[in-house]
Write a structure and sequence with these properties.
The structure is a single chain. The chain is an all-beta fold. It has two domains: 52 residues, no CATH class; 109 residues, Alpha-Beta Horseshoe (Leucine-rich repeat, LRR (right-handed beta-alpha superhelix)). It contains one helix and 14 strands, in the order E-E-E-E-E-E-E-E-E-E-E-E-E-H-E. It has a ten-stranded mixed sheet, with no helix packed on it. The termini are far apart.
Length: 222
């Protein structure tokens, strides 16, 4: 492929006009940059089920519209995933629970166990992706500049390690009072700037730790 490989850590396929992930790339790369291309589909596994040693994966500014992270069982050490600037309207993290008595193990139990940063800014999401709590190491989630309309009580359920949430410039009018209730490690930012929020301020903040947290709420409609 036209990608550049330093022979050890870095794979750079940015601005190469590729439409698919090349098959000849090294599985030992620690950093892979596929930004600014024409990729429409990203499949974490290619059928060979070989584990990648990737820690940082950049898929920003492509043409991805749907992404099913339930297939990502071969990225055991991935820490950051950049999906900014795509056309993603469906981001699937959870899967149906197998029928009682089924011997099939849930794939979601093994997806991206080391992921700390998930960035899905400038896409077409209209809801928070379901199943964020399955990413047990997740600390930062950036979803600014989407079309998210409300925050439901289960959107951040079980996100016990989450420290930083960016929801700036969405279409959020409602936030359930308990949406952030169990996020005891939130200590950096909850960014809700540039939304059409209509709810009373105390309902959002009542359960948050004011001594550790920065909350941005400017440019709303109050």
């Amino acid at each position: 492929s036209e990608c550049q490989w330093d022979g050890e850590f870095l794979l750079n396929c940015s601005f190469t006009r590729i439409s698919t992930i090349p098959e000849d790339i090294s599985r030992t790369a620690k950093v892979a940059d596929f930004s600014y291309n024409n990729i429409k589909t990203f499949l974490c596994t290619d059928g060979r089920n070989e584990e990648w040693m990737l820690k940082h994966l950049n898929l920003s500014n492509n043409l991805i519209s749907e992404l099913f992270l339930t297939t990502c069982t071969n990225l055991p050490v991935l820490e950051t995933l950049n999906l900014n600037g795509n056309a993603i309207h469906t981001l699937t993290l959870d899967a149906p629970v197998p029928a009682p008595g089924s011997k099939t193990h849930r794939i979601v139990d093994r997806i991206l166990p080391a992921l700390k940063v998930l960035s899905v800014e400038r896409n077409n999401l209209n809801t928070v992706p379901r199943g964020l709590g399955l990413l047990q190491s997740l600390q930062t989630v950036h979803m600014s500049s989407n079309s998210i309309q409300q925050i439901d009580p289960k959107d951040f359920q079980n996100c016990s390690q989450l420290k930083d949430i960016n929801l700036q410039n969405n279409k959020i009018t409602k936030i359930h009072p308990g949406a952030f209730r169990d996020l005891n490690k939130l200590q950096v930012v909850v960014d809700l700037r540039e939304n059409p929020l209509m709810i009373p301020l105390p309902q959002i903040l009542i359960n948050l730790n004011f001594f550790q947290l920065e909350v941005y709420l400017s440019n709303n409609v109050w």
